[in-house]
Amino acid sequence: MVGSARSETPGTEIDSPDPVPPGLLEAFWRYDAALLANDKSVLDELFLPGPATLRGDGRNLLVGHAAISGFRSARSAIPVRKIAALHVRVLSAGHALVMARTADGAATGLQTQVWQLTGAGWRVAAAHVSLPSHAPPAAAPPAFPPAGGQPAFDRSVWRVVGAPLAAALARGPLDGYDVAVKDLFAVAGQPVGGGVPGFLAGQPPRLASAAAVTALQQAGAELTGIAQTDEFAYSIAGRNVHYGAPPNPAAPGRLGGGSSSGPAAAVALGQARVGLGTDTAGSIRIPASYQGLVGFRPTHGAISAEGVLPLAPSFDTVGWLTRDVADSQAVARVLLPWPADEAALARIPVPATRVIRLPGVEALADPEVQVLLGRFLARATDAGLLPPAADVSLPAETVDEWFAAFRTVQAYEAWHAHGAWIAAHPGALGDDVAQRFAAAAAVTGEQAADARTTVASARAALTGWLDGAVLVMPTAPGPAPPRTADPAEIDDVRGRTLRMSCLAPLAGAPAVSLPQAGRAGPVGLCLIGAPGTDASLLGLAARLEGPEKP
User: Fold this and answer.
1) pTM of the entire structure?
2) Which of 151, 218, 393, 418 is the most buried (most CB within 10 A)?
3) Upstream peptide bond of 505 is cis (omega within 30 degrees of 0)
């Protein structure tokens, strides 16, 4: 070999036609040791900070240190292999390419890094991994990641995966789209688990897929796998006592939000292009806000819920998460009624003659989010994308009354959907969700009827305001809470969040959360339109999607 030298690891030859820059090999072997030990703190240190750092493998491309760190935070499997050969090419005085051939028995892999010299030493600016692969037996089912040598998939994100788990049923406009399906949707040949292992164990494989799943497959999409949900979708925290809390790649160390927690993480990690989920009280919009995604809740009832495990049918809505509005529109064209003349739709300046704000609701948000909302509206107005906003009075007492009614109806229907199973399986749920269902069990039919009267009144008021208007408000009070947040902080955030997120389901209205960059992590701003304005609302969202996206 040209310019070969012995490394710190016995038996590995170094091939370099030029002298190896000082400190580079030491940094590489430290990096390799951290990979084998799954030492996430060292790996975070050795990857170049900033939004331009890259990490890729056979399926995913992660862009930015935050996304890479989030991917690492969910990684539990440790590769078993050794470095068989190392090749170094000096690209410049401060940059070098390192390619390492790895071996695991008879199988070989390749890992490549571009290293950059910084004031703190050598750092990885870009990395690509091709891990050793072993051909599985012919009878083995498909697996993702590919079987043999690959780290096991993250079970806090996925319940089951494939390559793909379910193929497209036809060619169509969603060719090339891979979908993570929330574990509430029927997928042919698979049971529905609802995020509860005890429930999953008693479920037979479904003979047919949910209507929304089938529609996506008929449009060319394939299913990567079934992604985790908070237990029976009765939470917005994004953590499951049985499977863990999926990572938040956009804000490592913070919760990812739920209950569409698995699909959101899969999209944020680049493991799926679309996360198909449900939104009852914010279960799509909240994880979208926390993870810098676009989350869309359509008009209530616009998409069939056939084959979807219910929580509260009065508010349950099929929706989805994507990384941008264009992908959300692509899904909407398949699942929703869509105007035949899309060119005419694009010419509409705004889907409303008015923009409204609710200062009493905005007051629930953190000061930073209130400032972001003001700046967002000012830019949109200056650009001619929105007319000046008008304030609508909604007192805090009314918000509390509406939320209490929403929560009562939701609880009554949730117990009706799952109470019999829960009563027959004590101890099957985590404490927080079990307490929520225990409170739901105490709701009487009379209380539910009274609450429905208030819900009807709230819906009438909200749809009246939304007629010819779009409501712009924060999606959530602030960035995702830290994973280490104490119960009091979580309860405070939950209470403020649900008072905001319940407005769209109370109105039965479409809502889209657009990501904005906050200091401590992404935050979402929400556009809510009148029922039936889904297409024009997404059109407006596409025009408003801008430079503040994290």
Assistant:
1) 0.76
2) 418
3) no
